[in-house]
Amino acid sequence: MTTLDAIDLRILTVMQSQGNLSNLKIAEYVGLSPSPCLQRVNRLRKAGYIRGVTAILNIAKIFPSIVVFAKINLAEQTVRQFTIFETAIQNIPEVLECSLMSGEFNYFLKVIARDLEHFNELTQTMMEMGIGIKSFSFFVEIRNVKRTPVVPIDSLYQGK
Predict the structure, then answer these.
(1) CA dist list (Å): 120 to 29, 52, 70, 116, 144
(2) Fewer Cβ neighbours under 10 Å: the N or C end of the chain?
(3) What confidence score (pLDDT) does residue 3 get?
(4) Which residues are CB-neighbours of 25 under 8 A, at least 6 positions away?
(5) What is the mean pLDDT of the chain?
(6) Which helix (H) or strand (E) holds 70?
(7) Which has the closest alpha carbon to 29: 39, 18, 45, 44?
(8) 3 — phi, psi (to 5°)?
């Protein structure tokens, strides 16, 4: 599947915001019968357009936590050093996101922790791992104003 048509885009739009819908409901939403809809969903999955379906948890109802954003600078700006750092970060479950950045720092991390003490333990562990961290600064989230996993497909997709 090299290009997406309007039906594919509608399938992706509904699935990203309501991933637990049955195939029958998706088919109704996009105007297909269930069998061709399921075939399209399976093609979209196989082609890598759908990486998975997950539940969005209300963490505050489960346990108290803090979200911390961290700017990381590495001691060396080499592919080898980036690979070492990125490989290690994959094994720290509290790091929810990690992005290589342009500009004044190398990486931007989104980290979840029980509290500041736990976050301090995480940063000490990272510093002691020998993964090339030269310096870091962090920012504690006071209140989340907007957090959505839904990408505005209609306004971004230009076709190919």
Answers:
(1) 47, 32, 12, 6, 21
(2) C
(3) 84
(4) 18
(5) 94
(6) strand 66-74
(7) 18
(8) -125, 155
Q: What is the DSSP string of 88-111?
A: HHTT-TTEEEEEE-SSS-SEEEEE
Q: Which residues pair with 70 in a beta bridge?
A: 109, 138
Q: Which residues contact 147 (CB under 8 A, 6 or more apart)?
A: none
Predicted local confidence at residue 1, as pLDDT:
47
Give the whole-angstrom CA distance, residue 134 versus residue 79.
Answer: 16
In the chain, the domains with their CATH numbers are 6-55 (1.10.10.10), 59-140 (3.30.70.920)
pLDDT mean over 3-17: 93
Residue appearing with tokens 């989230």:
141
Q: Where are the alpha helices (DSSP H) in the chain?
A: 6-17, 23-30, 34-46, 59-62, 79-89, 116-128, 153-156
Q: What is the amino acid identity at position 93?
A: P
For helices 6-17 and 23-30, angle between their N-to-C axes, nearest 10 degrees: 130
Residues 67 and 111 sit within 8 Å (Cβ to Cβ)? yes
Answer whether 140's CB lies under 8 Å from 112's CB: no
pTM above threshold 0.85:
yes
